[in-house]
Specification:
The chain is an alpha/beta fold. It has 14 helices and 5 strands. The protein is globular. The mean pLDDT is 93.
């Protein structure tokens, strides 16, 4: 959606999609708006509770079946398991995605890793296509006037035009750009605590090939999972920036992560959006 400042102010049921890398402030904004009567639609929460719930539970059960005591309990239906994911703790989703590398170090082989990556991609697409229904639910069932769509950092990697078209038709897309001076800080923060990530298949193939050559390794099973995740993150970050911009230029608005960090309440957020709309109008 495209707006003038006046049109945005008059929009009775605002819906804003936050776009950008993990760590740029999407969760900060979403949590703040949730406290001020906005419905928080978390893409990864929807993925974990709806589209990957069964695969996550299957993974947990497969591990439990390796223990003779738990295996007997499961086979006799004497115990049950459930996915206890929370909006503020997406651990089960991250654990399912996993990291590539040596299984003895907690890694996954390339075939299994790629299978989970594909499942995650399909789940993220489905979760984003659910947005219009959750806009309706937020108003009709939960009585929230506005909705913030907190999407994963991998949205730009999906290569699924209908997702972007739908988000652009039903929400204002706000891209949170990281200034060059802060890029190193964001990368260092991600490397200090390497988390599972989604990679486009062609990006992953090239990255694995380059990593193996650089480290003098012959097989994926020799990869140290955290080392690969740290090594690949700067490359992933810089590959995603033009993809975010390609979405934001025709479909949305851009703000700085520095400005996002200064937002303290709903009024600050609305002013941030209005400033982005005004700035784009001047640039045009």
């Amino acid at each position: 959606m495209k707006f003038t400042v006046e049109e945005f102010r008059a929009w009775p049921h605002k819906c804003v999609t936050l776009l950008g890398m993990s760590g740029v402030g999407k969760t900060h904004l979403s949590a703040m708006l949730r406290r001020q009567d906005w419905f928080h639609y978390s893409g990864d929460y929807r993925i974990g509770t709806r589209y990957l719930d069964e695969p996550i539970l299957d993974l947990i059960k497969a591990h439990a079946m390796r223990d003779p005591f738990l295996r007997e309990l499961l086979r006799r239906d004497w115990i049950s398991m459930r996915n206890n994911i929370k909006v503020t703790d997406l651990g089960p989703v991250m654990s399912f995605v996993g990291k590539l590398g040596n299984p003895e170090r907690g890694g996954l082989g390339l075939e299994e890793f790629s299978r989970r990556q594909a499942l995650y991609r399909q789940a993220e697409i489905a979760a984003m296509l659910d947005l219009p229904e959750f806009v309706r639910k937020a108003q009709d069932i939960y009585n929230y006037p506005h909705l913030v769509n907190d999407v994963g950092g991998s949205l730009c990697e999906l290569d699924e035009p209908r997702v972007i078209d739908l988000l652009a038709a039903h929400s204002l897309i706000l891209y949170i750009r990281v200034p060059e001076v802060d890029e190193i800080k964001l990368i260092e923060r991600a490397q200090a605590d390497p988390k599972p990530l989604y990679y486009r298949p062609d990006f992953l193939r090239e990255a694995v090939s380059d990593y193996l050559a650089e480290r003098g390794l012959d097989y994926v099973a020799e990869i140290e999972p955290d080392d690969f995740t740290r090594w690949v993150f700067p490359r992933l970050f810089h590959s995603r920036v033009p993809r975010y911009e390609a979405i934001a230029r025709p479909h949305g608005y851009t703000v700085s992560s520095e400005d996002v960090a200064q937002v303290r309440d709903e009024q600050d957020f609305l002013q941030l959006v209005e400033s982005a709309i005004a700035a784009q109008a001047v640039a045009a």
